[in-house]
Amino acid sequence: MFKSKIREIDNCADESMPLNTLSHKNLKFIVFFLILVIFLCSYVVFSFINNSFESSKQSNLYLRPRSPNLGSAFVQRAILIFYPSNQEQHYFPEIRWLYRSWIEMMKDESRNWRTDLIIYTGNYSSSLQQLGCVLNEIRSNSTEQPQCRVFLYLRLSAREIDTRTEKQRLFANVHRKDLFDINIQRSILLYKNVKKYDYIDSVNIIAESYPTYKYYNFILKTDIDVFITKQFAKFIPVTNAALLVGLGGYSTPFNTRRLGRIARDMNWQHANMTNIGSTWYGSPYVAQRIADLTLDAMLHLSDNEFAQVERDRKLGVLLWPDWHYGVLSMYGTHLAVNHLLVSEKLGIKRANQLLDQSTTDPDPNNIEKNNRLHLHCWHTNKEFSKFEFKAGKYNNIHPRTLIHNTSAQAYAMRIALESRLMTLDELAQRLKNIGTSKTK
Ligand SMILES: *[C@@H]1O[C@H](CO)[C@@H](O)[C@H](O)[C@H]1NC(C)=O
Ligand SMILES: *[C@@H]1O[C@H](CO)[C@@H](O)[C@H](O)[C@H]1NC(C)=O
Ligand SMILES: *[C@@H]1O[C@H](CO)[C@@H](O)[C@H](O)[C@H]1NC(C)=O
Ligand SMILES: *[C@@H]1O[C@H](CO)[C@@H](O)[C@H](O)[C@H]1NC(C)=O
User: Fold this and answer.
1) What is the pLDDT of residues 142-177, one digit of tens each?
2) Residue 362, ligand 4, Cβ within 6 A
3) 79 CA distance to ligand 2 centroid (A)?
C-alpha cells in the first residue's frame, strides 16, 4: 500500500513536469516536490527490500531471454519517441543520452537482432542529420544495419484548421502521406479539445504512424528522458502478441471506481488492471490498438469528466492523486487497456519491475539480477537527476571513473556524461561501427 502510494506521486511528477517548470513560482508545487523528494528516498530503501523476489518472478513470466536458439533468429525491434523540435535546447541532451544508451545496449545484442531508434519530429534538424539519422525511410529487410530514423510528423498543436475551407493541415511533408494513417475527424477533435495537453503527441504518433513501425516484431514506445540498459539486449516479450506496460502510478481506489464507471458510460469493458505506465514494450499491433482507443478515451474524458478550470490547470495538483488533468493520457490508457483486455483479449501485461525503473538506484546488482530493461528519469534531484545534469552539476565527474560500476545510478550518470562529451559525429560513428560489426 505504502509503496503504491509513492509510485502514484512519482508518476504524476513525471507526467506534469513541463507544466510545473512553467509555473515554478507556484508555492504549492515547491512544497509538493519537497515531499516528493522525501518519498523518493524512502522508496529507494523500500525497493531494496521488496523488489528482487517480486521481479525475478515477474521476468520469468513475461520475458524470453536470448537463448542460443533465439540468438540466431532475426528479431526486429524499434524504440519510438516523439521529439518536440522547437525545444531543442531543453530536449536534445536527452536525445543524446538515449542515443548513447541505445548504442551501448547494442554491443551486447545478437548479431542477427536489429534495434532501430525512431524519432517522430517536426524538423530534420542539422543535429539529427549529424547523428546519422536517415529521413522518412521505413525498414524493409532484416539485414540492414541498425538505423536512427526520423519521420517528419506534424504535432497536434500545429495542425491549424483553415477557417474558410475547414480543412486541417495534417502533414509536415505532404509528399509522404503514405507514412501515416490519420483519422481526420479525430485529429480535428483532438486539435479543438486537447491540443494543449503536453503528452498527446507521444500517444498520437503510435496511433497514426503504424505504417512506419508495423514491420518490427517488437516496439518500445517511450519518452525521451530514458536510458536503455544492456539487459534490453537480451530480452523480448514471451510471445509476438504480447505487450508489456511499464510502471505507472496514478491509481487510487477513488479513480479506479470512477474510471470503471466511465467505462460503463462509454459502453466499454473494464478489467482490473491499474497503474498502467506510459512505456510499452511489445507487439506493434497491440500498441497501435491501445493508442487508438486511448485517444478516443482522452477526448471523452476531457469533454465529460473535467471542468474548464481543470483543463486550464487552474487547480494545480489540488485533486492529485484522485483526479488530475495532468495525467489525462494515463487515464485514457487505463480505459483503453482495460477495455482491450476483455473485448479483444489482447496479451497486455504489467511489467512494472522491468520498464520505467529508477535512475537513482545505487545497488550494483539490481539491473542484472532483476532484468531492468529501461530506466526513466523521475522528478528528483537525487543522483542521477536530469535537472541536475542539465544544470551542469555533474560536469566535474569523469565518466571513466564510473565504467566498472554496474548500478543504475552510475550507468545513467556515465552514459549521460559521455553523451555530453562526445560530438554528434562520434556518436554517429559508433552507430556505424556497431552496424559494421553486425553485418561483417
Ligand atoms: C529546422 O531546423 C533548422 C536548422 O536546425 C532551423 O534553421 C529551422 O528554423 C527549423 N525549422 C523549424 C520549422 O523549426
Ligand atoms: C535492405 O534494405 C536496405 C535499405 O533499403 C538496402 O540498402 C539493402 O540492399 C537491403 N538488403 C537486402 C538484402 O534486400
Ligand atoms: C475484478 O475484480 C473483482 C473483485 O476482485 C472481480 O469480482 C471481478 O470479476 C474482476 N473483473 C474482471 C473483469 O476481471
Ligand atoms: C557505484 O556507484 C554507486 C552510485 O554512484 C555508489 O554508491 C557506489 O559506491 C559505487 N561503487 C563503486 C565500487 O564505485
Assistant:
1) 999 999 999 999 999 999 999 999 999 999 999 999
2) yes
3) 20
The owner of cell 540466431 is 72
pLDDT digits (tens, 9 = 90+) for 343-358: 999 999 999 999 999 9
Counted domains in the chain: 1
Interatomic CA distance for residues 148 and 43, integer angstroms: 35
126 lines ligand 1 (CB under 6 A): yes
* Average pLDDT value for residue range 424-438: 97
Residue 138 is part of which domain span? 2-439
Q: Which of residues 7 and 418 earns the better pLDDT score? A: 418
Q: How far is the CA of 62 from the centre of ligand 3 (A)?
A: 22
Q: Could you give the C-alpha distances from 141 to 65, 106, 138, 212, 215, in angstroms and in order?
A: 23, 18, 9, 13, 9
At residue 219's C-alpha, the angle toward residues 414 and 217, to 5°, is: 125
Residue with cell 478550470: 309
Its pTM stands at 0.87
> Which pLDDT does position 216 carry in this prediction?
98
Report whether residue 130 contacts ligand 1, using a CB cutoff of 6 Å: no
Please enumerate in sequence order all residues whose Cβ is within 8 A of that of 108, keeping only pairs 6 or more positions apart, or say none: 230, 233, 234
| Residue 273 Cβ contacting ligand 3 at under 6 Å | no
For residue 269, the ligand 3 atom closest to its alpha carbon is: 13
Ligand 1 atom 12 nearest Cα: 123
Position 196 scores a pLDDT of: 84
